Amino acid sequence: DIKAEPGSASSNSPVNTGEKGKEKIKPAENLLASLQEKDKKNKLQAITSVVDKSKTLMKEYDLKPVPFTEFEENLLSFVMIDHLTSKHLSFFGFNGKQSLNDEEKFQVYKSLNEEQKIIIKRNFLIKYMLQTSGLCKKSALFIELVRLYCPEDLAAIEYDIQEDYQKKQANIQSQIKKIEVKEIDNVVEAKEVA
User: Fold this and answer.
1) Are 175 and 183 in contact (CB under 8 A)?
2) Nearest CA to 127 among 82, 158, 90?
3) For the chain, how are helix, strand and coil distributed in percent, rounded to 5?
4) Do residues 109 and 71 make contact, with C-beta atoms less than 8 angstroms apart?
5) Tell me, what DSSP letter sits at residue 99?
6) Who has greater pLDDT, 51 or 186?
7) Whole-angstrom Cα distance, residue 46 to residue 67?
8) C-alpha to C-alpha distance for 123 and 80, rounded to whole angstroms
9) For the residues of 8-46, what is the DSSP string, one character each?
10) 93 near 121, Cβ under 8 Å?
């Protein structure tokens, strides 16, 4: 019979630390915990490496014009969930929240119905199109989107702004006519003097 010495890895008795009433973790348990921690780090590193190499692969991937898969359609919805406004989160059962954490986004993604997908897509469109200003093609498309959702409200806005513009334009035209008349009078005077 071989007996383990006290304090060895195969011993069942705790190792004495020299402090009364406190016991140190056995070397075998310490080694086991260390190995488990190392395995956890290695697994995380392996997953991270796969993700990083996959990113590089996708950056170089040539897209092909093949039909969108159901997975891609759902994934697009998942990406757009980040853009949901707090007022639309209630449609997904998250009343009073400003944003969702990853677990909540995944929960929404896994249980989406067709109506929710439509809300996500429209919310995304509006949020993206709101990032326009001035006279450009994006602004024109934005106005068409607003016309689709709120035709009467947009008509009222356009009417008010057009009315204001016409008043400003009339004022400018009046000033231009005064300048033109003055210039014509100056030219006539110059000719009479000469």
Assistant:
1) no
2) 82
3) 70, 0, 30
4) no
5) -
6) 51
7) 32
8) 8
9) STT-SSPEE-SSTT-EEPPHHHHHHHHHHHHHHHHHHHH
10) no
Reference 122, options 160, 66, 77; nearest CA is 77
Angstrom CA distances, 79 to 83, 120, 124, 167, stand at 8, 10, 10, 46
Choose the most confident range, by mean pLDDT, from 41-45, 78-82, 99-103. Answer: 41-45
What is the token pair recorded at 193? 């003097």
Distance CA 163, CA 173 (A): 15
Residues contacting 89, CB < 8 A, separation 6+ = 95, 97, 98, 99, 100
Residue type, 194: A
Nearest to residue 29, comparing CAs of 9, 15, 13? 9
